[in-house]
Protein: 8-amino-7-ketopelargonate synthase
Organism: Alkalihalophilus pseudofirmus
Amino acid sequence: MSLDQWLAERLSNTKDAGLYRTLRKMEQAPGRTNIIDGRKQLVFSSNNYLGLAADLRVVEAAKLAIEGFGTGSSGSRLTTGNASWHEKLEGKLASFKQTEAALLFSSGYLANIGVLSSIPQEGDIILSDELNHASLIDGCRLSKADKKIYPHLHMEMLETLLKESMHYNHRFIVTDGVFSMDGTIAPLDKIRQLADTYDAYLVVDDAHGTGVTGETGIGTCERFGVACDVIIGTLSKAVGCEGGFAAGSRTLIDFLRNHARSFIFQTSIPQSSCAAAYTALAIIESDKSRLQQLKKLSNHIRKELVEMDFYIRGEETPIIPVIIGDTHKATQFAEKLQAKGIFAPAIRPPTVAEGEARIRVTVTADHTEEDINYLLHSFYLIGREMCIIQDAKIGSSK
Ligand code: PMP
């Protein structure tokens, strides 16, 4: 059997299981609307939470840096790929996250892999929330430490596992700050307390919290007023750019610079990406109106959908999962939304648990009141048509 025949056979199994994935084409810059596969759609699925991915100031900063420094960095940071914009951005990230230092990676995925493959060692244990992002899971897989999974946000179970882990050399609690498919928030105050009680280190991936969560958007640590031992994040969501980072003490960053293989062996991101992210972070720091608007819209959508009797997961965040349950129904719901010009995809097993298929709505600060009303009205109509919500409980936005 040729390689292609073997792969085609496996792909056919993927299709039979309903798990075959295809790509959709966005034809415009990220924004509240886009042309998706040739049709104009209102986009309610983007991670561009603050609407900065096509902000003209951010674009201009990238353009200027390209003119000055070219399109590629030409090497890893430890060889010929370290430049002033990398260091400037790291300084900005450290001050934004209120840590001593920060280290850039090419993506959040690689930051998670770099941290988890280099810090926990054989003889240590990692305790990981069951809904952690795939990149944390892959990082755990690369580590020689033992691993145990605790049920999502289950603090009693986490405590039990910590008690049972006292014979390990070191304990690590690893969690997302904001969970990408559920919009839930890790209770970092309680987790920090457990970490202190049981002498464990706390590693938080705040990919979806950075710029969005907490009073000023610093992230989930700010939301709970706690310090984490390692904060990981991405520049690809609220910051609207690309790249990832780890933030923490100077010693942590020095260690990662020397031991994180996904840092050492990767070409650094171009200076234009750093200049763009630096500018976006400066906007996030100086203008809180986007953050306030985002919080207002997120809370409004949640409240209205709950009033209509939809079952919503999570709290506060711009990630609003509307649980449909049945996979086929969720797909149908997403298709009906698309027919109305709304792009909010169905998330199905195995990405989420069996019986928990959902429409994952994400809102951005760019959405208008009209966009939101149209979204809510469409949910109401489709929900009733598909008998997901009843007549009796109706929200205020029909
Ligand atoms: N962590 C979480 C929770 C994420 O959702 C993502 C992106 N989907 C990442 C890490 C990876 O970040 P990046 O896209 O920068 O690789």
DSSP finds 14 helices and 14 strands in the chain. The chain has two domains: 23-49+288-385, 56-286.
